[in-house]
Amino acid sequence: MILEVSGLVKQFGKVHAVNGVDFHVAAGEAVGLVGESGSGKSTIGTLVTRLIAPTAGTIRFDGHDITALPEAEMRALRAKLQIVFQDPWGALNPRMTIGRALEEPLKLHTTLDSGARFTQVRELAQRVHLPPATLERFPNELSGGQLQRVSIARALATQPKLIVLDEPTSSLDLSVRAGILKLLDEIRRESGVAILFISHDLETVELVTDRVLVLYLGSVVEQGATRDIFSAPAHPYTQTLLSANLPPDPDARLARHPVIGETPSPIDLPPGCAFASRCPAAIPSCRAARPPATPLGEAHSAACIRIAEGANILSS
Amino acid sequence: MRLLEVEDLRVHFATRGVDNRLRVARALNGVSFRMEEGEVLGLVGETGAGKSLTALALLGLLQPPAVVAGGRIRFEGRELAPLASGARDHVRGTRLTLIPQSPHTSLDPLTRIGDQLVRMQREHRSVSKADAWRRAGEMLAEVRIPAPEERLRAWPHELSGGMAQRVLIAMALVNQPRLVIADEPTTGLDVTVQAEVLDTLRELVRAHRMSAIVITHDLGIVAHYCDRLAVMFAGVIVEQGPTRAVFREQRHPYTRALIASTPKRIAQRGFGEVGGSPPDLYALPEGCLYRDRCVRAADVCVQPPPNMAFAGNHRALCHFAAELPAP
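^ Those are the sequences you sent over. The predicted structure of the assembly is below.
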């Protein structure tokens, strides 16, 4: 296991952002976190990279308990645990050339001399298909797609075991996005790095990941192999979410599930199932207690008491 | 009946760089399309393709340094000027309206929802405050806002993203326009909310026999909500036609590249030739503007591409549009 998270909780004041999440990422695996706004998916990304500290729970990375590791010790581990953010414009220092931005992690985490670093930087640029001339440029001279390639190259510089990618393609145009997805595919094949892929874009998650966790209001409502989740979603929320997706094909049949209202506030969380207020299959006991995860198959589970009692929820 | 006719619209931006040299960005390079009454047209393309700029020209909201270098717009048989003029324009705002992109920056934060809807009506026609208030309530009910009478007194910050977007739809439709332009109407909304908002918009357009232009980069929205589709690249419409026909035939290589870039298609057919940077609007090539990125490019592409026509007013600007095999 590269990453093991158990009982993860994060509160920002009164806001319950993450409410007891358990999951793991195996070496070389690509795991997706999907959910809508307020689901806590980005918060989980910043928690597992220890950019913020959790309120409760434990995070183990590569055998080390990093839940409360002091920053000095965390720094050494960060070489192996990298994060790429959605906004590539905000992620790079505007006064630093691309070459220097790529050299920074090598200065921090390796003992290479400047000549060896220079060689490595050129290799990194090549790996992400950036022309060598790009290294002399400043961020404002590059396109969004090129900048995201730089961010990925910088994450790769220290040969990480896990890269957290937080909506890495959401601000990019369609064809540029496809180029980044192709690059991620190449990188996984070449380096075997594990990926935690955070996104609201269902089709991208389906393409990129091996396993998926579906989040709603800070809780995992369903998890399993990507293939299983997308072909046979079990939780009413997952079914609703997938049914709202619009495939880019006019002949694709849509089977939309009704959905009531919008996501409730994460300040006053209901005691029972967080989705009960919008769920067409909800019964009074859904509101009584948090539903436990019901096993549905190999590594597939859904937190819904209606499934546990064998009710045919929405899929009929 | 013909509602809108845009012919060879050209818009440039002239700016001076730090070296004081005049630089011209050719942003729209001959946009032509027509809309019939009751039609929903999807306008797709990547950043900088000219989608929103086309909308601004239709709405008469272009401001200097934009320069109209040619072309004309006819709406309901009348000529419209693409550049903003000081004169109050009653066609725009009543007959032709906009649903803007970001709900929370497009509403006045210091005015209650009901008052904004009243202002929108009284700006353009003479109507009593009481009647306008009543109509505002009806409009909120039409866009399916629960408890509309109470919501009239709500402030914009009290609304969720989905609700604020519904209010913007109400604002755009309150004067009963014939054509409404929705600029990325659901960007930033959650998927489950997006579908509901789009359903509401489609029902209202149908019920009132309006037409709509939906500007989006989401091919899923176009596939399921638009009758016709126009694909823009570097300020021209490279392909347009009935949505099904364009998706099925993909006459222009750019349309094919765009559709092939969606994760669904990649999952089915793998990564093809993807990527390519957007064109430099300051230094566009002669002939076909797409040829530097085109996998099908040949010598003939230095010549301007012909506007090839196919069944159902399906058109593509490409030398090879007729011979492209159905993908």
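The first helix of chain B runs from residue 51 to 58. DSSP finds eleven helices and twelve strands in chain B.

Shout if you want it in another format.
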